[in-house]
Amino acid sequence: MANSTINVDIVSAEGEIYSGLAAMVFVPASQGEIGIAPRHAPLLTLLKAGEVRVQAPDGEEHAFYVGGGALEVQPQRVTVLADTALRAKDLDEAAALAAKQRAEELLLEKGEKISIAEAQAELLRAIAQLKMLERLRKARK
User: Fold this and answer.
1) Is residue 18 domain-shared with residue 48, that is, in the same domain?
2) CATH classification of the domain holding 42
3) pLDDT tens, residue by residue, 61-77
4) What is the 3-state secondary structure (H, E, C) of the chain?
């Protein structure tokens, strides 16, 4: 099984979110989603807000939300260093909708440049959470 799995660690400032073996990992890299299989070429890239999916060797899929961060890939290890990270089951749709609304209101006010950038980033994070919740809802049907 050593050649058919890869070690995966997902960590944030709050601590370790996941550690285990995977057959495949999908991450929201800054230039688009990428898939990582065992023996993948080394890679270092930034992550955008979105969903990390870990396919376990038994076929079970684990989903996590990351609010951005960095990804390091080695042939036998994937490390996700997330700004923020949550298990899919811990996502709060009401909070994501409220954050989206707050960000949209701040953008309409057109205040300082720094607050506009913060509002845009918050809006992107909220939209990523809502998209992930929608995908999970469809997968359950």
Assistant:
1) yes
2) 2.60.15.10
3) 999 999 899 999 999 99
4) CCCCCEEEEEEECCEEEEEEEECEEEEEECCEEEEECCCCCCEEEEEEEEEEEEECCCCCEEEEEEEEEEEEEECCEEEEEECCEEEHHHCCHHHHHHHHHHHHHHHHHCCCHHHHHHHHHHHHHHHHHHHHHHHHHHHHC
